[in-house]
């Protein structure tokens, strides 16, 4: 997008915000829709990363990342930041320790701006969860948006 188009969108968004139409203003500035990528530290996170960027590009959404601390997330986060710069996609990274399933539910609760959540597998959500936390059922029902599972194809 050219600078003049960006400025035109910004001034239009300001006019909507002045009239109290904050959701419209946020949407015009590209802050309206987000794809949430969940990184668990598995090797297949790279496939999830590519899929999340594909969805973000097709829906003109920004990308948010919920990353488990430790594990192999550092390298994938580096790739994510490089790709976000290359594609000029807004990026927000949040790191969480402990049960990623519980962190995901809390993070995504009441978020109407999420286009979808992308994760490697539902099995990966149980990493570092207690027995009680593993029994949390219906994660996708609590999200309020589609849950896209990116799995390794086995032969």
What is the share of helical residues?
40-55%
Unreliable stretches (pLDDT < 50, length at least 5) are none
Radius of gyration: 17 Å
The N- and C-terminal alpha carbons lie at a distance of 43 Å
**What strand order characterises the main sheet?**
3-2-1-4-5
Order of helices and strands: HHEHEHEHEHHE
Could you tell me the number of beta strands?
5
Biggest pleated sheet = 5 strands, parallel
Percent range for β-strand residues: 15-25%
Number of helices: 7
Based on CA inertia axes, which overall geometry fits? globular
Q: Helix/strand/pairing class, anyone?
A: alpha/beta
Mean pLDDT: 81
Explain what the structure shows.
The protein has 155 residues and is α/β, with parallel strands linked by helices. It is built from seven helices and five strands. It has helices at 3-18, 22-28, 45-59, 73-87, 100-108, 131-134, 139-143; strands at residues 34-39, 62-68, 91-96, 114-119, 147-149. It has a five-stranded parallel beta sheet, sandwiched between helices. α4 (73-87) links the parallel β2 (62-68) and β3 (91-96). It is globular and about 50 Å long. The model has no long low-confidence stretch (mean pLDDT 81).
In short:
The chain has 155 residues and is of the alpha/beta class. The chain has seven helices and five strands; from the N terminus they run H-H-E-H-E-H-E-H-E-H-H-E.
